[in-house]
Amino acid sequence: MTEVSSLTGRLLVAAPALTDPNFDRAVVLLLDHDEEGSLGVVLNRPTPVGVGDVLAPWAALTGQPDVVFQGGPVSLESALGVAVIPGGEGPLGWRRVHGAIGLVDLETPPELLGPALGSLRIFAGYAGWGPGQLERELKEGAWYVVESEPGDVSAPHPERLWRAVLRRQRSELAMIATYADDPSLN
Questions:
Q1: How far is the C-alpha of 20 from the C-alpha of 13, rounded, in Å?
Q2: Helix or strand or coil: residue 101?
Q3: What is the pTM of this model?
Q4: Residue pLDDT, tens place only, 102-157
């Protein structure tokens, strides 16, 4: 088996040619990536469901928009909390993924984490890839891999995140941010 270089903490930005409707113009934060597969959450798919409607104790700690995000097509009935905690070690109930970004144990009482949280998003479901599946998709050109920034997790206008992430790249990827939503309209 070939060695897999971890992409944990990086972003997958859907290429315009990616035809899977689950990932059309998606920005995925990879929470885990190794030889056993990959797991991430789509950062730019807000739902109309308020956090207070499904996880009331956490509602006061989420940023705007304070809705549940569809993290991906897998296990939509499960919830993941992703939070940014600035500084050193995080509190009990938070596990660092990359830099200041980490996973929240939603079974932890919110009052234990609240004072430490810089931002929090709740995701229903996740995006998952089996061993070697993401690497194949990367070779096919379905995704661009770029560095994440802590603000990506809590972008106040998630519908603009795909363009914003591409636009900040210092390469030809910045030009892709200008692609029309529907190229047939050109």
A1: 13
A2: strand
A3: 0.92
A4: 999 999 999 998 888 888 999 999 999 999 999 999 999 999 999 999 899 999 99
Strand, helix or coil at 164? Answer: helix
User: Is the bond leading into 65 cis (omega within 30 degrees of zero)?
Assistant: yes
Long-range contacts of 137-142 (CB under 8 A, 24+ apart): 141/15, 141/17, 142/14, 142/15, 142/17, 142/18
Start-to-end CA distance of the chain, whole Å, equals 45
Q: What is the CA angle 7-12-13, rounded to 5?
A: 155
Dump pLDDT digits (tens) for 46-55.
999 999 999 9
Structure tokens at 38: 């990959």
> What is the reported pLDDT for 60?
93
- Buried b / exposed e over 49-70, threshold 16 CB at 10 Å, is ebbeeebeebbebbbebbbbbb
The label of the residue with tokens 């892709």 reads 176
